[in-house]
Amino acid sequence: MGTAREPQPVKLVASLLTGDVDLLGRASSSLSASYGPIDYSTELLPFDHTDYYAPEFGPGLQRQVITFERLIPPGTLPAIKRQTNDLEGSFAEVDRRRINIDPGYLSLNKLVLATTKDHAHRLYLGHGIYGEVTLSYQRGHFRAWPWTYPDYGSDRYITLFEQIRARYKAQLRDLAGKPGI
User: Fold this and answer.
1) Is 87 inside any structural domain?
2) For residue 86, what is the domain's CATH number?
3) Residue from 28, 36, 12 nearest 106 by CA
4) What are 101's strand-pairing partners?
5) Does residue 133 lie in a domain region?
6) pTM
7) Cα atoms found within 13 Å of the Cα of residue 83, Cβ hemisphere only
């Protein structure tokens, strides 16, 4: 029998998607006010792997992935997803979202994204939120699953998540070296 124990803290990741790039800065500032300083931000990434969001958001969508300096307990992801849903609503116009904010976390062996949608490969986390292991870290690289969104499974995204993992790994080393942690 195994012994239950608390997991290591994880790296909070947020993926922001919009056709209005001015919203990226406003949303990032709001997220930073809640979750602390941003320590990594990608360049604008064209959202061109699918047209899934085009009916809701229109053409020319851009994504930006950000991470936060402060590590979090993985069990806080459902509350964070509910907060980001509220933030999306605060930017909406006439009940139409203008930005999509997908929070998740990165650990040494996976990238987990939060969602409100159930599916066979998603686990219920509580408070109406499901978690999906979107990427797994195997043999020195992140790997996509059959259900991984096409952009997240692309070489470009794999590379950026490996860069984020290297930052996170360094943070864990720093934490391990501090007394009382």
Assistant:
1) yes
2) 3.30.70.260
3) 12
4) 16
5) yes
6) 0.94
7) 15
